[in-house]
Amino acid sequence: MSQTIAICNQKGGVGKTTTTLNLGVGLSRQGKSVLLVDADPQSDLTASLGWNGDALENSLGRLMYLATQEYKPIVKDTIIHHPEGVDLIPSNLDLSSMESQLVNAMSREKVLSNLLKDVKKDYDYILIDCMPSLGMITINALTAADSVIIPVQAQFLPAKGMTQLMKSIDMVRNHTNDKLKIGGIVMTLVDGRTNLAKEVIDTIRMKYGMQIRIFDTQIPVAVKAAEATKAGQSIFEYDRSSRPAKAYEELTKEVMRFAEREKRRDEAAIAR
Ligand code: ADP
Ligand code: MG
Known about the structure:
272 residues, binds adenosine-5'-diphosphate, alpha/beta, binds magnesium ion
C-alpha cells in the first residue's frame, strides 16, 4: 500500500522543498520507491533536482490541464528519473494558470488525486511539495494525500498561519478526503544556539495540544543544506557526514515508523 504525503505550509522559506527532496532521497536510500511531485509553479523542487522546469514540455501543470479538458493524459510520460533514485513529476509556470482554470473544472479538488491513482501502485511513497498558498493546487495536494507533514521554521512563532492551515486541513477532511491525517510538524532551520525552537514547540503545544505530533528530529540550519540544493543534489550526495544529512536520515526513519504504523492500522480496519 502506497503512502502519499503532502509537505505543506503556506509560508514560504520554511524548508518545504528542501524537506521534500531530502526526505524523498532518504526514503529511496532505505530501499523505498519514491515519486516526488512538484506542486509549486515556482518549480524550486524541479530546479533543485537539476532540471529547468520551463524547458520541459511535460509538467504537472500540463497533466492537470489535460485532465480538466477531459483528456486522459498518460502520467508516466511526464515522470523523469533522477540519478539519486527518486522519480519526479516536474513543474513549471504552466501550473500557475491552473489555479484559475480549476475554479470551473468538474471535481476540481480531485484532479491531482485522480492523476496519481494511475501511478500509485508503482511507489511506496509519493511526496508532494506544496506551494506557499492555500489555493486550489494545495487543496488538490491535500485531497490526494494520506497525510501532511508541516515544516515550521524555528525562527518565527507560527501563530496565525498555523490556524489557517489547520482550517484548510479540516475543510479537506470534511469535503474531499476524510482520511487525511496530520503526520506531524518538523522543525526546520533550527539554530542550536538559541532556544527559539523550544519556544515555538511550546507555543504549538499550548495552542494545539497533544493532537499534533512534533517530530523528535529537528533540522539544523546549515549552509551545506542550501549548497546541496544549488548543486542539484540531495544533502546525502552533497555531504553525507554533514549535520543536516544526519538529521534528514533520522527524520526519514521517523516518517517510515509513522507511515508503517498508519498502514497497519488501515489494513486492520479493512480486515474488520
Ligand atoms: P520552501 O520550499 O518552504 O519555500 P525551501 O526548502 O526552498 O523552503 O528553503 C528556503 C531557503 O532556505 C532555500 O534557499 C534553502 O536552500 C534554504 N534552506 C533550507 N533548509 C535549510 C537548512 N537546514 N539550513 C540552511 N538553509 C536551508
Ligand atoms: Mg518550496
